[in-house]
Every structure is written in C-alpha cells, then in structure tokens.
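Chapter review. Work through the record for Transporter substrate-binding domain-containing protein before attempting the end-of-chapter questions.
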Amino acid sequence: MSGRGTGHSPHLVALVLAVGVMLAATGCSFGSPDGPSMTTPTFGPPLPGGAQVLEPVSGEPSSAPAPTSCDATASLRPGPPTTPGAMPPGGPLARIVERGRLIVAVDQSTNLFSFRDPDSGQIAGFDVDVAREIARDIFGDPSKVEFQIRDTVDREPALQDGSVDLIVNAMTITCDRAERIAFSTVYLNAAQRILVTEGSGIGGVADLAGKRVCTVPNTTSLANLRRIQPAATVLATETWADCLVALQQRQVDAATADDTQLAGLAAQDPYLEIVGGSLEPEPYGVGINIADEELVRFVNGTLERMRSDGTWTKLYDQWLSVLGPAPAPPEPHYRD
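Structure tokens for Transporter substrate-binding domain-containing protein:
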C-alpha cells in the first residue's frame, strides 16, 4: 500500500508472495477463489507470535448496549479560541507547549489509519493526520508530534500515567472505557464486519458458528464476537497484520474487526472481501486523560474546525476512499 492509502507497496506484495512460497514448500497452495479449498490442521503451525486460541464458549448469542445507552459519545463543548503556542497557564495545554511536542499513542500495523509507510519509513494514515491537525492548532505546526507505538493492552495505562497526551488509534467509544478515560466527540463512524476469502461461503455472523475467526485481544471486536457468536473458535493475534497472514495461510476462516480496519487488510490482497452487515456500531473518539478537561475541549475545537473547513473530508478522500465516497462528518454530541 502506498503512502496515499491506495495501491500495493512492494513490501506488501512481497509479504503475500512469501506466504505463497512458504505454503508451497509445505505441499499447500492458495489456488483461485473458485478452486478447491485448502485443508489444514485445526490452525496449522506456526501460529503468529503471541497468538492465543480461545475455544467456543457456552451460552446463547446476545447483543450489547450501544455507547449511546450511557451517553458515552457525548463530550464537552469546545473551549474558547486560543492562539497557537500561547495557552492558558497551569493546564495540560501549557504543559504540552512547554514540552515542545504533542505525544500521541498510535500503532504501526493498522493500514490506512496508522501504519509504517514502506516508502518513507514514517508512520502515516488517517489517525496520524488527525493527530497532526491537533498539533497544528496547539503549535501552529503539524509536525510537532511524537508518535509512540502502543498496543491495545498498554495504550490506556500510558494515557492514565501521563506517558502520552492522546490516543488516536481507531479507538471505539464504549461505556466501559468512558469510566476510565475521557473521549472527544466522534470523529469517525465505523461498523464491525467480517473479512473472508472470496468464495468462502461465509456471508454473515451466523455462518461463523464452528468456524475459526481471527481478531485482536483487548478490542471491542473480540468482545462483540464472543458475545454475538459464542460458537466460533477465536485466534487472538497481537496485530491485524497477523490476522491478514492467518487468512492467507488458511489458518482461519474469517477475521472480524471494524470495516475501516478490514478495508486496510482487503486492500493488500485481491482475494479478500468484506461480507455481512454490521455486527456493532464502532464510533471512534480521541482518548484523553479523564482529568484533562481543558484538553478534551481543545481537541473538540480542532475536530469542529476540521468538519467546517473541509479538512475532515480531505483526509477521508486521501485515506479512506476505498470505503466509498466521503460521507458527511459525524455530527458532534455534547453533554454541556
């Protein structure tokens, strides 16, 4: 995938080819989507490093309360206008300006959102550019950002202990998370769906019963899958890129994540497709320390500017056009 969010980079093509060579060496081949299905052991060694197999759980499928049930998507209204570089003393914004950079938690394996651009070697994507817009409004300079690579396990602790100022990482606003951290208004509406190989016969969540499904720990995707389809066997991998490889090696029958994340995986393999309707809505928000009310209001001011001046639509067209034409930006929802 190129730095512009379209096409295939040489590195990603090489990954797909390398997987094919490895499988050929073990007597397996991909075949065409219309060809015979590949047979493997239950998962087939070797599993990705750090992967866990979660057996089916007992119980009937159920749904979860939406984030609106506790008003988790309601945030604080933007604060008064500020001059870049000159922030009110004594608060988180003054601390960030004194430090000289905004520190933001992202990852490097969510294609289209925050990934390592193989051409430049830099972190790039929709979320990365949202973070740069916040830095632009703080400093007048979008480059004054330090991106820290954090996985889903330690991103909240890093926010809570002050190691990072923000999480901008395709993070879904949930009632549970809103008890621990603060969120901006919704900056992107996603929906959890299913990714499969073309011709798989899987068309929706009901078809995942008895199937092997890949997702990532400590995500709403895993929690939703276990609740909505408890009869699935789960391969929980450390990254979404590991799920891509597991699908390509036929170690799993499907992967599930937000449609925005699945689009980034599908863009790397022409034999993959997103199927079925929405399992759950996934409203994305910027994560902020719950004590930093001033910073919450400031971030919401940046998001308001991005909606009104066309920046949001520009970034959507740049990175997420694979999902179709840009929709209207999410309307803000405030509780004060």
